[in-house]
Amino acid sequence: MKWLIDSVIKHLTSNLSPSIMFAPIKVDLLDIGTNNTPKKSIAIRMTPSALGEQYLKGEIINKQFQVLVKSDNQLEVNNTAEAIARELNNVHKRSFNTIDGSYTLSLLNVYVEPNFVEKTAANEYVYTAIFKAELYEDE
Questions:
Q1: Which Pfam family is one of those matched by this entry (predicted)?
Q2: What is the CATH classification number for the domain harbouring 96?
Q3: Rounded Cα distance, 41 and 128, in Å
Q4: Which of 30, 85, 99, 134 is disulfide-compatible with 41, CB 3.0–4.6 A?
Q5: How confident is the model over 92-102, as pLDDT tens digits?
Q6: Do strands 54-55 and 25-27 pair parallel, antiparallel, or not at all (unpaired)?
Q7: Rounded to an integer, what distance in angstroms lies between the CA atom of residue 43 and that of residue 39?
């Protein structure tokens, strides 16, 4: 869902410092580094999620998304993954910077805490976290 991805990107870039958001957020794939040149990267992508509840006046839309963070500095990548998780967890109770008013966010929580995924051939560390969102379409 483009609205959710774009809104999360806008929110993170507006609320977290450039030292935490050490690379532009890409959609779907991390940048690829080489053995001689590691490449720092942050990516966000949708993941499969269950259908939401159906009501007479609309529905709750369930969405899940994954954030991946990659750097040759393991402490940096861990700190960034943790900061993103803290910023997005329960953001529906605070101010969430959306791209427009098409939807209302009723819930956004960490579904899977930040975890180590792999160390790449270019000696980059990859961490990920998964988030669950509930939203409904505004009329």
A1: Phage_tail_terminator_6
A2: 3.30.2000.30
A3: 12
A4: 30
A5: 888 887 778 78
A6: unpaired
A7: 12
Q: How far apart are CA 94 and CA 61, in angstroms?
A: 20
Q: Considering its fold, how many domains does the chain have in total?
A: 1
- 3-class secondary-structure state, position 94: coil
pLDDT tens, position by position, 110-121:
999 999 999 999
- Residue 122: give the domain boundaries: 2-137
Residue type, position 92, single letter: H
- Residue indicated by tokens 């008013």: 101
Centre a 10 Å sphere on the Cβ of residue 88 and count the other Cβ atoms it contains. 22
How many Cβ atoms from other residues are within 10 Å of residue 29's Cβ?
10
Task: Tell which residue, 39, 44, 40, has the closest CA to residue 9.
Answer: 44
Quote the DSSP letter at residue 91. G
Report the amino acid identity of residue 46. M
pTM of the model: 0.90
